[in-house]
Recover the amino acids of this structure.
């Protein structure tokens, strides 16, 4: 008998650069029973979706995006300058993530406590029949499994089975090859929904720890020093460095702002002080996404523009980027813009600390 879970959301959806978080968000859409009919809170319009634009045609994708916003925030990945599975970065810009990190138990358990789900975990040494049995049992109960196969850093979902064939979901639904277990590195089998076990205070303390991490100040100094020493020989590498660093906060801080702006989402569900939540929502929105306020998202686009980067270049540098960064005017512009990103983070951190004193 063939069994395939419903309410699938292929991932990533829109601006979702962290593959694990996108996979878990799609898994929780299924696990928590989201449907097309469930009201979706639209953060930009501050109301439930009324299908006023094309985005309203895909309510399950919107719900998945809302879950992604909150998971990225609770994990603190929304407040770094790199993703910790990227081994080209050392040290990472967030506390608790060393080189070679691969979704340790503490990390997964933190998200399970925040989002409210139970799970079993297996590795590549786990017997095939044991893993397959757990996947089937989970699917029978309405829950998917996160699988990391031969790709070192990419995750997919097991969302169904027929006999011993497992059906996976990433950008599309497909049957996994018969040897999927031989290349399995990790499996997180969701077994049920539980009550969230992370306080609002703990969430805010985690964000403060991320934003105040000493590597942020160190990275700012590295950026400024690199811009003071651009040469024809290192111009391309320096431009690539600036573009790479910018690529994370321009997206990740937007996710953080969306998570605090949601009137009904996983983050607001654990909020115990609506007045403080509203205060933080306003500050984080102003610093990260509100147009015209030197917000991080807009600053990021200005950094790309200064490097000649955008949709036409696939958001990657070109030979023009090297020419531009050799100009003193571009160097000073980039210094000013990056300084604003770090200033915004410090302002958000200070506001959260002030709110923590009142909790």
């Amino acid at each position: 008998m063939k069994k395939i879970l419903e309410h699938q959301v292929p991932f990533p959806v829109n601006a979702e650069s962290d593959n694990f978080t996108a996979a878990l968000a799609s898994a929780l859409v299924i696990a928590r029973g989201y449907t097309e009919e469930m009201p979706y809170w639209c953060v930009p319009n501050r109301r439930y979706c009324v299908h006023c634009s094309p985005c309203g045609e895909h309510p399950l994708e919107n719900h998945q995006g809302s879950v992604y916003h909150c998971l990225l925030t609770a994990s603190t990945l929304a407040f770094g300058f790199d993703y910790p599975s990227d081994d080209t970065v050392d040290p990472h810009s967030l506390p608790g993530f060393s080189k070679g990190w691969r979704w340790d138990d503490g990390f997964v358990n933190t998200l399970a406590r925040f989002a409210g789900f139970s799970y079993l975990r297996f590795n590549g040494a786990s017997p095939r029949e044991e893993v397959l049995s757990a996947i089937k049992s989970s699917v029978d109960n309405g829950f998917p499994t996160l699988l990391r196969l031969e790709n070192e850093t990419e995750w997919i979902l097991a969302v169904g089975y027929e006999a011993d064939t497992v059906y996976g979901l990433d950008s599309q639904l497909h049957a996994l090859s018969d040897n999927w277990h031989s290349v399995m590195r990790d499996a997180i089998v969701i077994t049920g929904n539980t009550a969230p076990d992370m306080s609002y205070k703990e969430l805010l303390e985690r964000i403060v720890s991320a934003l105040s991490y000493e590597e942020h100040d160190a990275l700012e100094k590295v950026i400024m020093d690199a811009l003071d020493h651009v040469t024809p020989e290192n111009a391309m590498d320096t431009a690539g460095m600036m573009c790479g660093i910018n690529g994370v906060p321009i997206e990740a801080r937007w996710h953080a702002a969306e998570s605090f702006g949601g009137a009904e989402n996983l983050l607001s569900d654990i909020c115990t002080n609506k007045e403080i939540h509203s205060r933080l929502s306003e500050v984080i929105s102003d610093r990260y996404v509100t147009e015209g306020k030197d917000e991080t998202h807009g600053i990021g686009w200005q950094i790309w523009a200064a490097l000649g980067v955008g949709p036409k270049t696939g958001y990657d540098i070109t030979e023009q980027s090297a020419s531009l960064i050799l100009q003193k005017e571009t160097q000073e512009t980039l210094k000013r813009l990056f300084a604003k990103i770090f200033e915004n983070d410090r302002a958000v951190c200070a506001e959260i600390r002030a709110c923590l004193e009142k909790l």
User: Anything to note?
Assistant: The longest strand covers residues 186-193. The CA atoms of residues 270 and 344 lie 25 Å apart.
